[in-house]
């Protein structure tokens, strides 16, 4: 069987894990010890984990984050989520065909008294991602007894999945540093604070009326938690009684209702990043991404770094919702972005074989005749996130002193999550009477800035004025552009093109990002009005020494360096590049593009500069170009062959046949029928057709069900929401009973 392991990566080191044997449906396979079963199966080319008992539909993964149960398998006789179960040597894993059978067990079990095991803590933090870690660091500095629980085998949350450089500022949010490296930085800070205890592989499962939080704690041998007690049973239910609680559980991905949306090969962008970046498994060959926010665009970039072809990114809005520099970066590599498009269907029998998309009009209706079908094996859904806030809401209901941070409080970037974590940490300390000062106003204002939406991209006239350039077209049809240009930076310096070296900034949209100002050795890079969201410009071109730091640190790969000193007619242009070194070796022809991805021409590589210690993963590729195009150059095209639409027979189902509740296989048509018959209570829907009755607890289908109510003309104020009860996560009966072993 062909291995799907990633054996080279431009940013990540390839770990040398121990291979162990296991069995899949009786066949011998190998996987990395301690990796999740889902990744071990994917690495062996297996994406179908079983078939649903209701309609025999193939089942695979969707979230890879423990939020759904589509990846269910039988491991050593027990049904488990494969994305949350580590591989052990000799494991016997089977697909789920129909309903899992309760295993026979004639052995007498021993039990322990779980009522006597209550752990008291000052602060309980659920979630060890950027928000939870940042809060714990502030609490730890004040020597407050704090416990972090996280269901993964390592700290960092979504930071673990991020190979790109972060935005924000160097001082406050580690801008210019890659996400997984930021996770290591925060973890090291936490390790120096003895009052903070960390329980990994520990899942919070419920919040109860007696203000007790129930957690299920694993004690697998690969746990990285050195502070945990040894000798506890492999799965132990523990009650925690906190004085204060912080919910920093992050977010879960939203799903779209379209025919074929549950086929193996359709899954969330976070699941994809888990496979390719955390576990280094090449899950796909060709992907199409639905959603033009930062999550989708970044996933496309991660795909290319993993050696996966990206057919396109599609977005329903007229413009992408993510940062323009992210979108530009992807287009420069050769990935088309189709705005005003939607997905019509994912096509295939047992897995995705193709995907059909179409253009939308201003009323969000499909324009007939615009359909395109692409051959792909994966469709990534990145259409937004929902906060994982059920623990917070239930704790509020029971009158607990509870706080939230990060995406559980408000969906935003990880840099913002770090700030909200810091703020809530101090807020909790104040409520305990340990911190007497005020929360710094600067923190609150910076958190607000980091949460802010990106600005409107500036015109070339406005950008030229900011950067001191001559506006080439003084007869612009847009008078507002010229007025903006005149007011932006009247004291900017006109760049010269002889005997000088200068950075060129290709960012055109105000976003919270200024690391280029921090790394400039001469201190001559500033942002407009010195704001973190201001666009960068050069204050004194004569002082630039050409250190290239600004090019290397830019998170959007939107800075270049143009050096006229040796040849003013054919200056040397330095371009950032984060793919493979062997594709840009000296003498090779590379295709250079402008900011929009349009090709300027092919040029031989003169030199490649790499500072692995200071800027790991970023190559600086130098080419010589004519001066009339040198300042336009920004990207190196990677996907050079256009991907054409293919003609296939229409395999899409009717829209009513799109699955909404993936656990119980309830379709949009079944839900619409109930609504049209007068149903206005989601709890009643459960009784009629089992919508939301599955093991995920409606975590995936809830927003789509409410959307159908709205589409049917029902005011959501008339709809009775489902009643949430603990447990929020599936727990074996034996664990709740205190079964040992």
What does this 3D model show about the protein?
- The chain has 19 helices and 36 strands.
- A hairpin with an 8-residue loop joins β29 and β30.
- The strands form nine sheets. Strands 9, 10, 11, 12, 13, 14 and 25 form a seven-stranded mixed beta sheet that branches. Strands 26-29-30-33-32-31-34 form a seven-stranded antiparallel beta sheet.
- It is globular, with a radius of gyration of 27 Å.
- α2 (130-141) runs parallel beside α4, α6 (294-305) packs parallel to α7 (324-332) and α9 (414-431) runs antiparallel to α10 (441-451).
Q: Could you tell me the strand content as a percent range?
A: 15-25%
CATH structural fold name of the largest domain: FAD/NAD(P)-binding domain
Which CATH-level-2 architecture of the largest domain?
A: 3-Layer(bba) Sandwich
Q: The biggest beta sheet, please?
A: 7 strands, mixed
**Low-confidence segments:** 220-233, 470-495
CATH class of the largest domain: Alpha Beta
Give the helices and strands, then pairings.
Elements: E1 19-24, E2 27-32, H1 37-43, E3 50-51, E4 58-59, E5 72-75, E6 78-81, E7 92-94, E8 96-97, E9 118-126, H2 130-141, E10 146-149, H3 170-173, H4 179-191, E11 196-199, E12 202-207, E13 213-218, E14 235-247, E15 251-253, E16 266-268, H5 269-278, E17 286-290, H6 294-305, E18 309-315, H7 324-332, E19 337-339, E20 341-347, E21 354-359, E22 372-375, E23 378-381, E24 385-387, H8 390-397, E25 402-404, H9 414-431, H10 441-451, H11 460-466, H12 479-488, E26 501-505, H13 515-519, E27 525-527, E28 536-538, H14 549-553, E29 559-563, E30 572-577, E31 589-593, E32 599-610, E33 619-624, H15 627-630, E34 635-636, E35 659-661, E36 666-667, H16 668-676, H17 682-689, H18 702-711, H19 733-736
Parallel strand pairs: 1-7, 3-8, 9-10, 9-14, 10-11, 14-25, 16-23, 17-18, 17-23, 18-19
Antiparallel strand pairs: 1-2, 3-4, 5-6, 5-7, 12-13, 13-14, 15-24, 20-21, 21-22, 26-29, 27-28, 29-30, 30-33, 31-32, 31-34, 32-33, 35-36
């Amino acid at each position: 069987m062909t291995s799907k392991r990633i054996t080279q990566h431009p940013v990540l080191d390839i770990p040398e894990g121990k291979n162990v044997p296991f069995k899949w449906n009786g066949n011998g396979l190998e996987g990395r010890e301690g990796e999740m079963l889902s990744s071990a199966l994917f690495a062996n080319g297996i994406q179908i984990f079983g078939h649903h008992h209701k309609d025999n539909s193939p089942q695979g993964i969707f979230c890879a984050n423990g939020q759904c149960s589509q990846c269910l398998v039988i491991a050593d006789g027990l049904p488990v989520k494969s994305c949350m179960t580590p591989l052990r040597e000799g494991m016997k894993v089977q697909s789920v065909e129909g309903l899992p059978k309760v295993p026979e067990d004639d052995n007498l079990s021993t039990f322990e008294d779980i009522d006597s095991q209550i752990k008291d803590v000052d602060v309980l933090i659920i979630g060890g991602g950027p928000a939870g870690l940042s809060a714990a660091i502030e609490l730890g500095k004040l020597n407050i007894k704090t416990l972090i629980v996280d269901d993964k085998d390592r700290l960092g949350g979504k930071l673990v999945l991020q190979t790109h450089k972060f935005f924000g500022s160097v001082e406050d949010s580690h801008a210019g540093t890659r996400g997984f490296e930021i996770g290591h930085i925060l973890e090291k800070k936490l390790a120096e604070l003895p009052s903070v205890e960390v329980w990994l592989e520990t899942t919070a499962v419920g919040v109860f009326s007696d203000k007790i939080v129930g957690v299920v704690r694993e004690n697998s041998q690969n746990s990285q938690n050195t502070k945990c007690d040894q000798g506890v049973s492999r799965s132990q239910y523990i009650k925690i009684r906190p004085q204060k609680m912080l919910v920093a559980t992050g977010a879960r991905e939203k799903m779209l209702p379209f025919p074929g949306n549950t086929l193996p090969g359709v899954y969330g962008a976070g699941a994809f990043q888990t496979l390719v970046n955390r576990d280094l498994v090449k899950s796909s060959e060709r992907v199409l991404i639905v959603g033009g926010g930062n999550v989708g665009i970044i996933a496309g970039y991660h795909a290319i770094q993993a050696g996966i072809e990206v057919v396109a990114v599609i977005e329903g809005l007229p413009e992408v919702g993510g940062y323009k520099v992210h979108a530009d970066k992807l287009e420069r590599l050769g990935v088309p972005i189709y705005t005003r498009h939607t997905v019509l269907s994912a096509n295939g029998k047992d897995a995705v074989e193709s995907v059909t998309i179409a253009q939308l009009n201003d009323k969000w209706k499909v324009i007939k005749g615009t359909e395109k079908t692409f051959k792909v094996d994966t469709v990534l859904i990145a259409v937004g996130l929902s906060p994982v806030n059920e623990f917070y809401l239930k704790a509020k209901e029971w009158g607990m002193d509870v706080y939230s941070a990060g995406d559980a409080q408000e969906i935003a970037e990880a840099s913002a999550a770090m700030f909200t974590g810091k703020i809530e940490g101090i807020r909790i300390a104040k409520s305990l009477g340990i911190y007497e000062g005020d929360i710094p106003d600067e923190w609150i204002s910076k958190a607000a800035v980091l949460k802010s939406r990106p600005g409107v991209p500036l015109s070339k006239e406005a950008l030229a004025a900011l950067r001191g350039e001559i506006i080439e077209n003084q007869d612009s049809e847009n008078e507002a552009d010229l007025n903006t240009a005149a007011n932006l930076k009247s004291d900017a310096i006109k760049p010269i093109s002889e005997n000088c070296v200068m950075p060129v900034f290709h960012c055109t949209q105000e976003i919270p990002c200024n690391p280029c100002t921090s790394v400039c050795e001469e201190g001559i890079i500033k942002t407009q009005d010195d704001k973190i969201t201001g666009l960068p410009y050069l204050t004194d071109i004569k002082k630039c020494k050409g250190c290239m730091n600004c090019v290397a640190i830019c998170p959007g790969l939107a800075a270049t360096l143009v050096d006229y000193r040796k040849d003013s007619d054919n200056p040397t242009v330095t371009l950032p590049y984060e793919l493979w070194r062997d594709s840009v070796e000296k003498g090779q022809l590379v295709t250079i593009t402008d900011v929009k991805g349009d090709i300027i021409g092919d040029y031989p590589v003169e030199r490649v500069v790499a500072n692995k210690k200071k800027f790991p993963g970023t190559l600086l590729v130098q080419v010589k170009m004519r001066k009339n195009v040198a300042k336009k150059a920004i990207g190196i095209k990677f996907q050079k062959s256009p991907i054409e639409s293919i003609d296939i027979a229409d395999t899409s189902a009717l829209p009513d046949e799109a699955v909404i509740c993936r656990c119980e296989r309830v379709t949009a048509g079944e839900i619409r029928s109930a609504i049209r018959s007068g149903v206005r209570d989601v709890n009643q829907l459960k009784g009629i057709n089992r919508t939301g009755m599955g093991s995920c607890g409606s975590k995936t289908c809830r927003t789509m069900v409410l959307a159908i109510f709205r589409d049917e003309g029902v005011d959501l104020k008339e709809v009775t929401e489902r009643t949430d009860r603990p447990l929020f996560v599936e727990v074996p009966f034996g664990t709740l009973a205190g079964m040992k072993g």
